[in-house]
Amino acid sequence: MNNLDRIFTDDASEFARRYLTYLNDVFQSIDPNAIARFVKTLLEARARDATVYFIGNGGSAATASHFANDLAIGTNSYEKPFRVISLTDNQAIITAIGNDFGYEEVFVRQLRTLGKSRDVLVAISASGNSPNLIRAMEYAGSVEIKTVAITAFDGGRMKQIANEVIHVPTGPKEYGPAEDAHMVLDHLVVSYLIRVVRNEAVTR
Predict the structure, then answer these.
(1) β-strand pairing of 83-86 with 120-124
(2) How far, rounded to the nearest angstrom, does the alpha carbon of residue 142 sit from its chain's CA centroid?
(3) Is residue 146 packed enough to be buried (19+ CB in 10 Å), middle (13-18) or exposed (0-12)?
(4) Cβ-based neighbour number of residue 145 at 10 Å
(5) So what's the pLDDT on residue 202?
(6) Over pLDDT 90: what percentage of the chain?
(7) Which of 56, 100, 118, 148 could form a disulfide with 164 if both were Cys (CB 3.0 to 4.6 A apart)?
(8) Do 36 and 186 form a contact (C-beta atoms < 8 A)?
(9) CB neighbours of 76 closer than 8 A, spacing ≥ 6?
């Protein structure tokens, strides 16, 4: 039984209270040093004009798009921008690759076209076991693209092969809390970077 089954009650108000309490416990278990390392990776990519690619499936695809938008546009850094692309967004490319080569290829083939050594690949997945994400991460590792895994559950294969990991320690199949936490990570990281960029402008 996962934690959401354990806290379930017919009383929606009580379930809401328990869900929020559990979510707070999840947040408290995330390693802030892992978040700091990710921030450093993003700032270093920006400094060398590298591109950061985001990938994910389903809800994590939406998070990838949201993260890419917030980082590229929300930081308002145009003299020294964060160069960010979500590989989840072009449906013509995704359906063409999926139809012609299989869904496991939808990210790696885009990365082969766009990616360069010393870029960064951020893969978002609750299970950490999505074959198309793993394939893209393995390719990235072979061409010196740094990999960051944002995971949940037990972290899966992605947690084992990534250069960096931000792990959200939820129970298995707890997609709601996992994806809630992943979106909070987006807003936490970008809120910090907005202020870094702002301070740079002040001191220039």
Answers:
(1) unpaired
(2) 20
(3) buried
(4) 22
(5) 77
(6) 95
(7) 148
(8) no
(9) 194, 197
Helix/strand/coil (H/E/C) assignment for every residue in 79-109: CCCCEEEECCCCHHHHHHHHHHHCHHHCCHH
Where does residue 16 rank: exposed (0-12), middle (13-18), buried (19+ CB within 10 A)? exposed
| pTM as predicted | 0.96
CA distance 2 to 15: 14
pLDDT digits (tens, 9 = 90+) for 87-130: 999 999 999 999 999 999 999 999 999 999 999 999 999 999 99
Token pair in block for residue 79: 């003299």
Residue-wise pLDDT tens digits, 141-185: 999 999 999 999 999 999 999 999 999 999 999 999 999 999 999
Domain 31-203: state its class. alpha beta
**Which helix (H) or strand (E) covers residue 59, if one does?**
helix 59-69
Structure tokens at 144: 């010196």
Q: Per-residue pLDDT for 69 more than 90?
A: yes
**Distances from the Cα of 134 to the Cα of 19, 66, 77, 98, 114, angstroms:** 31, 21, 31, 16, 18
Cα 10 versus chain centre, distance = 33
CA distance 70 to 197: 13
**Calpha distance 107→167 (Å, rounded):** 22
